[in-house]
Amino acid sequence: MNMLERLQEDMKNAMRNKEKERLTVIRSLKSALQNEAIHQGRELSEEEELTVLNREMKQRKESLHEFIQAGRTDLADKTRQEIDIIEVYLPSQLSEEELDVIVQETIAETGAASKADMGKVMSAIMPKVKGRADGSEVKKRVEQALA
Q1: SS (H, E, C) the chain
Q2: pTM score
Q3: pLDDT for 88-103, tens place per residue?
């Protein structure tokens, strides 16, 4: 079952159970996936679907940060709920230890020795952790390892 089919089923269940917030988020995700498919002019691969879902998650996290800074706890709480719903559709996130292991392995594979090799390491590591780790966290870990 691809992501659109899964979202369609979950949307039906949310309607039946009268879960208004969940239904809104699912519709938003489904719409984002369909828009990307239209933009691409073809069906999306699993990796492309994951990219779209990660983009939606990133937008929510940025909004959450802004709402917290602005003192809008009502909107922050709503955004946290949306993030929780989106997380269901994303692969499980890597733990700090797992991420550190991947960073060390990639540094060894690329032969990186200093921060000057940061780009080489990042381009090698991102496909390995796509959807399972935040890019800014990966960057921070790589910088620490190369320091």
Answers
A1: CCHHHHHHHHHHHHHHCCCHHHHHHHHHHHHHHHHHHHHHCCCCCHHHHHHHHHHHHHHHHHHHHHHHHHCCHHHHHHHHHHHHHHHCCCCCCCCHHHHHHHHHHHHHHHCCCCHHHHHHHHHHHHHHHCCCCCHHHHHHHHHHHHC
A2: 0.74
A3: 988 888 888 888 888 8
